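Please decode residue identities from the backbone states below.
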């Protein structure tokens, strides 16, 4: 199978690199830029899409997907996004790139540049492509707003939205924003439980009502201290609240007919807050030498519960499990980077980063039998994990020729992890992380990129502390011996641009993973538990195809189709069963489709997008899960711009929601023995959501 797919990959890559005679006449530039490394899109290119903000414009760039970097990882090295505003990165972890773009009025955008290969004046930060939004000079003050009215399954009607405003006073730029989010979802579950012989034991009907709200404020202030020095402050603060009420009716089949045997209910209120601040100082010493200093502070906290999971027989209270969880997190990072252009063909960047991070988790579990409430002991229920980390880095960009660029780099990380609480332990890690990438611009329309790198996952603090899911009867014990998985990656990508609005790309990649992150079994005095851990070395082979195609050639004027298809082949030797299997959690297939058509004469547009994943597997010590998305996720909308400065959209999300499926196979003892005890089937459904959205500028 792999050999056939590899042959297909090679054939498609050759097709992408081939340059038919007719294609030579196609101009990939829709703006003022003619360099093959940069594709320019002026404001006229976006007219058919009726953009309100810069986010609407960037989302229509063919062959580009906005990425904010990996902001969930600690530190700054992996959090650099692929967006520039006037040649500068606008934010780093504190404010999302989507929020940055939503604050920019589309009328203030002069043009947008798609940077397709490393250039001395831009820092790619590991991205294959960047987008640079160039604003009009003297744009002045502007604002944008967005409000939504949403109808959720279950009959709940709510409204939320965002508002943002930006202005310039002298040498200082100000940006402010307010966001609200309200989601009163209803989740319905249908479960059936069978024994190993296929006899139905129980049928469960769950109705879960959720109410989530969040309010967030953000602000950015950038001041040009001098012609060579600029400072920017980004701040964000948020508070949230989540309430949940769940009711379950359980029927038994002891007599062959369904009979109510149990009633279950639970109710909880969770709340939390988060604040973050990033300060960035840029100084240019000369045309060839510059520095960037970045400092980050982020802190968050949450309280979950107490949540009582109560069980009743048809007439009386039986028992309850009461769970409370508190968590606090802190992250502090300082990064210093230097950039030096040695000559027109060589650019180097070097520097260092230091960080101090910690997380405290407190888990309390109690059992109520109706007479007494007693604590339930769980290992590593209370934990504090602290990390002190340092990293040095060096990157080099060599412009070998006008069509060939070589990037290379080395990051060396050292970290010390100390855990206290129910368990005490201190460990040290050090990892070199080299990278290399070769970009060849074969023609104005065609490029090829080959890359290799070593990546090390940052330690996830949550894996050091225990957690429980009473509704699923699951407990996961924290593992003080958990290590981050390490991955070597080789990747090749070919891209072909078609005309001024289309592109096709194909990517093939191979990952070699050391210490695959999965579940292991841990034996404690309280019992045998699942725990996060490392189960050996594994591999991932993947093929990815992307396309963005205008459809005028087939008679669909002002229509654009975007497609994404990815196939994974994963392998790990399961030390529990002594057999090869797929990696837990990774789906074999992923499909994303997007269609939009505009009717300028009517000030009208419509479109749809579709997302689908194949079934996924999860392997635990005494359980196997098979999870599916059934029909996928289809969203449909129609919108109008007939009112100047206003876009109105009517849409439906999850239009095909017939529920996500899940099968759980419980084994009697270890999964390696393959002795099935019970099998559970579940269908989980949230239902379609209808919304009316208005967006505008001021």
């Amino acid at each position: 199978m792999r050999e056939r797919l590899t042959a297909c990959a090679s054939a498609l890559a050759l097709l992408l690199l081939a340059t038919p005679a007719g294609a030579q006449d196609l101009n990939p530039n829709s703006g003022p830029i003619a360099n093959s490394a940069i594709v320019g899109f002026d404001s006229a290119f976006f007219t058919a899409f009726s953009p309100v903000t810069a986010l609407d414009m960037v989302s229509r760039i063919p062959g580009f997907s906005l990425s904010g970097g990996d902001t969930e990882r600690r530190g700054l090295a992996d959090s650099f996004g692929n967006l520039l505003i006037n040649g500068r990165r606008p934010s780093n972890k504190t404010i999302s790139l989507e929020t940055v773009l939503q604050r920019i009025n589309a009328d203030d955008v002069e043009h947008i540049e798609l940077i397709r290969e490393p250039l001395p004046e831009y820092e790619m930060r590991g991205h294959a492509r960047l987008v640079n939004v160039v604003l009009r000079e003297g744009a002045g003050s502007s604002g944008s707003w967005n409000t939504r009215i949403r109808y959720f399954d279950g009959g709940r009607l709510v409204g939320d939205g965002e508002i943002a405003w930006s202005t310039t006073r002298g040498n200082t730029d100000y940006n402010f924003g307010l966001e609200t989010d309200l989601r009163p979802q209803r989740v319905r579950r249908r479960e059936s439980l069978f024994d190993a012989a296929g006899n139905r034991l129980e049928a469960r009907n769950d109705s879960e009502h959720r109410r989530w709200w969040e309010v967030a404020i953000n602000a950015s202030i950038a001041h040009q201290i001098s012609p060579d020095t600029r400072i920017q402050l980004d701040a964000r603060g948020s508070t949230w609240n989540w309430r949940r009420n769940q009711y379950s009716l359980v029927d038994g089949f002891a007599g062959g007919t369904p009979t109510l045997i149990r009633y279950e209910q639970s109710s909880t209120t969770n709340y939390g807050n988060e604040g973050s601040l990033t300060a960035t100082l840029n100084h240019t010493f000369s045309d060839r030498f510059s520095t960037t200093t970045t400092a980050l502070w982020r802190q968050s906290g949450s309280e979950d519960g107490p949540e009582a999971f109560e069980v009743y027989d048809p007439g009386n209270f039986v028992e309850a499990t009461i769970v409370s969880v508190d968590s606090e997190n802190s992250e502090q990072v300082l990064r210093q980077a230097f950039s030096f252009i040695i000559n027109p063909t060589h650019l180097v960047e070097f520097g260092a980063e230091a960080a101090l991070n910690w997380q405290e988790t407190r888990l309390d579990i109690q059992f109520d039998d109706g007479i007494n409430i007693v604590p339930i002991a769980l290992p590593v229920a209370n934990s504090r994990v602290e990390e002190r980390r340092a990293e040095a880095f060096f990157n080099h960009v060599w412009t070998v020729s006008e069509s060939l660029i070589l990037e290379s780099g080395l990051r060396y990380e050292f970290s010390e992890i100390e855990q206290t609480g129910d368990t005490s332990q201190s460990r040290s890690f050090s990892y070199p992380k080299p990278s290399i990438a070769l970009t060849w611009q074969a023609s104005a329309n065609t490029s090829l990129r080959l890359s290799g790198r070593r990546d090390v996952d940052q330690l996830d603090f949550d894996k050091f502390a225990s957690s429980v899911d009473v509704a699923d009867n699951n407990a996961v014990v924290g593992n003080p011996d958990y290590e981050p998985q390490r991955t070597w990656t080789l990747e090749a990508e070919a891209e072909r641009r078609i005309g001024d609005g289309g592109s096709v790309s194909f990517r093939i990649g191979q990952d070699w993973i050391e210490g695959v992150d999965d579940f292991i079994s841990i034996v404690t005095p309280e019992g045998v538990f699942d725990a996060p851990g490392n189960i050996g070395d594994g591999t991932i082979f993947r093929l990815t195809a992307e396309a963005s195609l205008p459809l005028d050639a087939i008679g669909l004027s002002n229509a654009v189709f975007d497609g994404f298809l990815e196939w994974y082949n994963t392998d790990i030797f399961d030390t529990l069963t002594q057999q090869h299997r797929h990696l837990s959690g990774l789906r074999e297939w992923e499909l994303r489709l997007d269609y939009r058509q505009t009717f300028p004469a009517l000030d009208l547009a419509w479109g749809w997008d579709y997302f689908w994943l194949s079934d996924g597997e999860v392997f635990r010590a005494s359980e196997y899960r098979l999870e599916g998305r059934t029909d996928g996720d289809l969203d449909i909308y129609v919108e109008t711009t007939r009112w100047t400065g206003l876009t109105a959209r009517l849409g439906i999300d999850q239009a095909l929601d017939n529920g996500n499926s899940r099968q759980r196979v419980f084994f009697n003892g270890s999964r390696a023995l393959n002795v099935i005890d019970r099998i559970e089937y579940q269908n989980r459904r949230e239902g379609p959501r209808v919304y009316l959205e208005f967006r505008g500028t001021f």
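Observation: The first strand starts at residue 38 and ends at 42.
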